Amino acid sequence: MKYRQLGKNGVKLSAIGIGSWLTYGLGIDYKTALSCLKTAFNEGIIFFDTADIYNKGEAEKTMGKALFKEIEVKREDIVLASKCFWPMSENPNDRGLSRKHIFESVHKSLKRLKTDYIDLYQCHRHDPETPMEEICRAFNDLIIQGKLLYWGVSEWSAQNIIEANEVCEKQNLHRPVSNQPQYNIIRSQIESNGVMAACEKYGMGEVVWSPIAQGVLSGKYSGGKIPGNSRAAHERMGLFIKDSVSNLELLAKVDRFKEMAESLGHTASQLALAWCLRKSNISSAITSASKKQQVIENAKAADIEFTREIEEKVKEIFA
Fold first, then answer.
1. Distance between CA 287 and CA 102 in Å, rounded?
2. In the chain, where are the structural domains located?
3. What CATH topology corresponds to 3-215+279-307?
4. pLDDT tens digits, residue range 176-213?
5. Which residues of 73-96 are buried (b: 16+ CB within 10 A; e: fewer)?
6. Residues 24, 54, 121, 202: which is the catalytic one?
7. 221 is an active site residue
């Protein structure tokens, strides 16, 4: 496993991370989740990502129990991340990024994760109803209290990121250190919409989600066929990839990509991850897995040398 700094900050993450969106506490049973998380740690993965909204807290509970009760990971040996923003109940204040919701969300996440502090806590989306200074000061205070070590954002626009950093600079507050956007070969908008540039300007690391496009870039859906044990076959886990697995033109491109990957001695998933990691400001590519072997396969992607020649071939395929 390779390790990368989180932007210009001192903490290091494993180049491959493991997440829990739509998997742990939902479509994947606890025994399987435990096997995947244990395998991840044994493969050198130290960055574990979750969020309060993932199956309304169940993913956090699964990760906390597995890591600290079953595997008995030393707290200092991993970097643990979570997020808040989405509604967790009908309570009008149990959502968004108000000072009240951030504080209460952090305390609930701490309990579910069975830990005294969280390394990285991120705003799961931007909240236009809450003043930026209120958001920044809330996270600053939680860091001073020792409940969080760093804070970051997810799916914020370049302007949101710039504003947050300007507020923190003006008020002498702890700045956001990370951004968690969707980023993969078929969805690379952060390269052109100013988000990646803004993060580089302020020394924020990118911890990207869906680097394999929820499995689409693995090539498993060739010709629109959906394997019975795949994410797309699951009613809830496959909710967000229905359009992709029915797009035969896209899947034909993925077939070509898979052939190229195999000719280089890699799997399509590994090469898709290596494509993300070709950018130095990508601190970690967050994967999900429902099988132990997937974790092992993905971890090996950190060792791939992604050359300019390979990048040009990928551009040609997905032009």
1. 26
2. 3-215+279-307
3. TIM Barrel (3.20.20)
4. 999 999 999 999 999 999 999 999 999 999 999 999 99
5. beeeebbbbbbbbbebeeeeebbb
6. 54
7. no
